[in-house]
Amino acid sequence: MVAAQAAAGKGGEARVRQLFEAAVAAYGREDAEVWLRYARWERRALRRGGGSVCWRAGKELDDPDGFMARYQEELRREAQQGPGDADNAEDADME
pTM value? Predict the structure, then answer.
């Protein structure tokens, strides 16, 4: 995630999106984590809702229920925290 944020900061938004698209193409049927990270990037780095990524994940994952529960929990947690706090929580989750 840190690498994605760094690349986006250098004007590499299109490249980061390509990387996420490659990841979901390769692993998106069974790996909910790649979808969570993609949606998180949309919300935080691009300040977009992440809803289109969430919708796609629901359609593509073999078992979308776990993803949806984790995605909704992240949204609840972010709503309770400030915007900067959500970024720090993500870093703590990655350790």
Answer: 0.73
Other Cβ atoms less than 10 A from the Cβ of 34: the count is 20
Distance of CA 37 to the CA centre of its chain: 3
The single-letter DSSP state of residue 82 is: -
For 1-69, give the DSSP string: -HHHHHHHHTT-HHHHHHHHHHHHHHHTTT-HHHHHHHHHHHHHTS----HHHHHHHHHH-SSHHHHHH
Task: Summarize pLDDT for 23-81 with one digit per residue, the tens.
Answer: 999 999 999 999 999 999 988 887 777 889 999 999 999 999 999 999 999 999 988 98
CA 92/CA 95 separation, integer angstroms = 5
- Asked if 53 and 59 count as a contact pair (C-beta separation under 8 A), the reply is no
Class of residue 72 by CB neighbours under 10 A (exposed 0-12, middle 13-18, buried 19+): exposed
